Amino acid sequence: MDLLLVLALGLLIGAVLGGLGGGGAILTVPALVYVVGQPAQTATTGSLVIVGLTALVGAASYLAAGRVRRGTGLVFGLVGLPAALLGSWANHRVDADLLLLGFAALMLVAAAAMLGGRPTPADDVPGGATPVPHPAAGGAGPRGAVAPVLERTEVQSGSRTRASRTAVVAAAAGVGLLTGFFGVGGGFVILPALVLVLRLPMQVAVGTSLLVVALNSASSLLARVGAGIHLDWGVVVPFTLAAMIATLVGKRVADRLPARQLTRGFAVLLVLVAAYTTWQSASGLLGGGDEAGTATASSPAADGAAVVVTPAQAAAAVADGAVLLDVRTPEEFAAGHLAEAVNIDSASTDLTVRLDALDPEAAYVVYCASGRRAAGVVQQLADLGVTDVVNGGGFTDLAPVLPTS
């Protein structure tokens, strides 16, 4: 993946985060899947790093200003920890297309929340009474539609009331599940819970919610790393750094623009991305697989070589006799690979010759570290006349379901 493209995506997401005070994180997964070409599970894991680190930086700034209820944030995060672990466990076991369909539904919910709120007078005034930014919430932040409702409720409530323990537990569990399963911050759930349920002032709620996002992201990430989920640091690191920088720039630019128009524009963008995600995922579900459950790509050029089958589908294909092709470097292969896999370095100068020497009548499951290099090899095999070949994705995704060496 071109580094410039990764940086551009990071800058775009960061600008949205800083400009709208949230929501940009929910675009991270579609960007990693459809632009970078990562498998859905890998993208949601990378999103946890991006969202978590951005939230941590934001929480530190609020903590320095005394706008974080550390005790509340820690309790909220600890209550949501089991749900975050459950979400991470489920993420690795659900079909990638079903996962993305659920993500599309989540985007529509966030868009509806942003479009459904009533603006405050300051929303139409560039630079006027700008709410505090929430750079990693993953949903409608304080500049979004939820903020006016929360601010009015906070003023009207006048006095603090004892929060319902059931409501607190439900909200914390819901946020943890969203973070673990989808790799998003869940800001459109956290902020209402902290303000309406726990009666925190808006600015304190923003800082505290950043702490909750960071805690849930960290626990979800640890659960996935323990399960062997792959992280493409070559994408995650520049993406995160660019997003952090652009967050600050986006905030300054947005302060000069009408917040209501920005919020509505972003909500429309969410709807469009959700529609595209639904179309892609539905196509994968309707066209994926034979009766045995294997997703053989009879025409990778038409179906999209970057489409990654689930680990279960790859294992089924191998059980039916498919040959495993490991297209990583010899060094990566030597460090660990699937049993019986054939190593053909996708960067080797004689790649075409070696692929042409393969049996075009055989079935193949191609894998690498993330699925991106495998996509190129799948396409080349299709061009050479191989009709039964699939992109198996990353080695660490397949290792739990196939023997390794």
Describe the structure.
The chain is mainly alpha-helical. The protein folds into 2 domains: 279 residues, no CATH class; 109 residues, 3-Layer(aba) Sandwich (Oxidized Rhodanese, domain 1). It contains 17 helices and 4 strands. Strands 2-1-3-4 form a 4-stranded parallel β-sheet, with helices on both faces. Helix 7 packs across helix 9. The longest helix has 29 residues. The chain is elongated. 56% of the residues are buried. About 15% of the residues have low confidence. Its main location: membrane. It is found in: Cell membrane; Membrane.
Shape: elongated
Order of helices and strands: HHHHHHHHHHHHHEHEHEHEH
State the domain count. Answer: 2
Major β-sheet strand ordering? 2-1-3-4
Q: What distance lies between the first and last C-alpha atoms, to the nearest angstrom?
A: 28 Å
Could you tell me the strand content as a percent range? under 5%
Say what oligomer this is. Answer: single chain
Report the helical percentage.
55-70%
Average pLDDT: 73
Question: Which ranges are low-confidence, i.e. pLDDT below 50, for 5 or more consecutive residues?
Answer: 118-133, 135-163, 288-304
Subcellular location: Cell membrane; Membrane
Transmembrane segments: 42-65, 72-90, 96-115, 167-198, 204-223, 230-250, 262-279
Keywords: Cell membrane, Membrane, Transmembrane, Transmembrane helix
Protein name: Probable membrane transporter protein
